[in-house]
Amino acid sequence: MKYEVVIGLEVHAELKTCSKMFCACPVVDAARVEPNSAVCPVCAGMPGALPVVNRGAVELGLRAALALECQIAPTSLFARKNYFYPDLPKGYQISQYEYPMAENGRLVVETGSGERLIRIRRVHLEEDTGKLTHVQKPDGESYSLVDLNRAGMPLLEIVSEPDLGSIEDVRAYAMGLRAVLRSVEASSADMEKGQIRFEANLSLRLPGRHELGTRVEIKNLNSFRALEKAIAFEIDRQAAVLTAGKKVIQETLGWDESEGVTISQRSKEEAHDYRYFPEPDLPPLVVEPEWIEAIKNALPELPLARKRRLQREHNLSSAEAALMISDPSGADFFEECAGAARGEIAARTIANWISGPMFGWLNHTGERFEQVKIQPQALVDLLHMLARAQITHNTAKSVLNEMLANGRSAAEIINERGLLQVSDPQVISGMVTRVLNENPRELSAYLKGKETLSNWFFGQVMRIAGGTANPELLRVELQKQLDRMKTH
Questions:
Q1: pLDDT 10s digits, 104-142
Q2: How far is CA 390 from the centre of its chain?
Q3: For 54-66, what is each residue's pLDDT tens digit?
Q4: Into which CATH architecture does domain 425-486 fall?
Q5: What would you measure as the largest C-alpha separation in the chain, in angstroms?
Q6: Cβ atoms of 267 and 250 closer than 8 Å
Q7: Which regions of the chain carry the CATH code 1.10.10.410?
Q8: pTM of the full predicted structure?
């Protein structure tokens, strides 16, 4: 039996501030500093320590909320969300619930079946918890370690309405939301560093029904891959339960990546389980209309609008433009390259070099576009040399990697290493003749019908040429000499 899938997402994004949400402790990279080294009485939950709201976090939250077309509340309240867990030192989390900072937003995303409008229920501010590390020793002893460096980091929670009806919808919404957060510089949203996490609320119902089925919540999904796999598994699991005539249990689930299954963590809480009540140590958060207007006027071009403009102005395909806008700094780099090329190099060629070799380099090194050692003009200069057949495609890729590694210019590297492409017909003819003369056994096999050896000969010529032979001239000259030998 087929069921209709109903999904809503809760997204937690770490805001791009220098200090924590309610204290002056620095926001640190947990992988690079000692545990519990960025902790004070406030974020450690010491009795009598008083929180103070981080104005910068509020501004970043407003940027994101306005970009999502939310209605901003002139006055919002912080509340205590009570639950007891070792990584929550106060015994409660300062969050917003009944009176959030922003509500009733929307995000338009593109899917294979067209545009989808996803409604945003609310956007609110809160603090992060600490981090637990569970240790299992070979002798069977086990224990957990608590690191409070993350406790108190500012988070923006974005809650969608249950408007997502497929895994494709979820992927498009999650990627679109991350692109918005990056474009307004509210969050770096780096999944590998845990700066954005997803929680999916999912239920199934019979087609045509309006009432929602029993929902489950899948917690702390920190990659698109985990998000998609967990939802796919849970759709199949719930469908099997319903088809067997049983009821789905409302519960909170975790995702076991190694086993590829969801696992029950606890029965699903409702709002009253957390005993929300107003935070007595913080006054209402009042946002002046002038401040909202100033932030709104300073918003950059948003991802979907930029994508469409890149398609229109630079003749990029939808997929190419989507890759360019996936990182705002990468899109800036592309547009500067396109401007520097002045139409002499196709924008699509530039986009392919950025989304291919440059993205590959960044993925390998872990760098961001802001850290790239070359200017856009440097890439354009390299592509000009390739377009003029001064270097081969493979040489260009090798030179680009070296440019990215040390910031040197293409001309400097090419001249120093003698990488200019050989296009002299006599030189290429001589190299072909040499290879054919030095490999009589392979030549005999070719002449007897093993014509795939022509590719081997091509590779041998390229080897003695150091990869600098003009491939088009080489292939023509090689075929000419081989055809001549066939007729003798």
A1: 999 999 998 889 999 999 999 999 999 999 898 888 899
A2: 36
A3: 999 999 999 999 9
A4: Orthogonal Bundle (1.10)
A5: 99
A6: yes
A7: 425-486
A8: 0.84
